[in-house]
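Hi P.,

Sorry for the delay on this. The queue was packed all week, but I finally got your sequence through. Input first:
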Amino acid sequence: MSTPINNTAASGSTKKRNNFRNRRRNNKESELSTDGARNDTRNSLGKSNASAQRRPNDSRRRNGKDSKVTVYVNPNELDQANLKVRQAQIDQCITMLGSDSFKLFKKGKNSTSYGFMLRNRKILGVANLKFIITVPLNYPLSPIKLSRQEQTKEDIVQISDQLNILVNNFNNKSKGFIQNDKTPILSQINFFIQDADLLSQKNYKKLDLLKGQFYSQFEKLAS
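Then the structure:
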């Protein structure tokens, strides 16, 4: 005689098996999801590293350390009329001062420099002083700049501080020449020679201001 099957027990056993299968399925899906997330993370890190290798200076550019950009003057964009004025004034200096006293020193992308020597002419009691006059490519829109050539003669070394003051004061004055009356280069050089003693004074700016006020009052009285 066969033993009857208990439906309740069979049903409970079936439920246990189903629950076991579901747990295994969920575990596998969880593992797959975790592996996928890991792969995504690796891919993301790989792309980030590759990007960093391609652009090693990006952080420096953002920090501004390498943000300095040199802008060059394009000769094709310059006013041809100003270029003619510039060249005419340079030629005038060469003609009047002589090619030995005013000659090409260096050509740059934004300017041209000329060696300038005062032969047989004393400034601050010293003869044959050498200077460099730099003429910007966009002159007369920008002023010329005067600088010293290094000289080791003892009498020149002794007046080194005065020469530095002289050069700085002239360069400040040169800005005014351009802004106000477009004084030619040769006239600026003549001013430099004639007023060298005054330009070498530390209080030159104050003296020049008083001089300007005097001439202004004189012109008012004359008119």
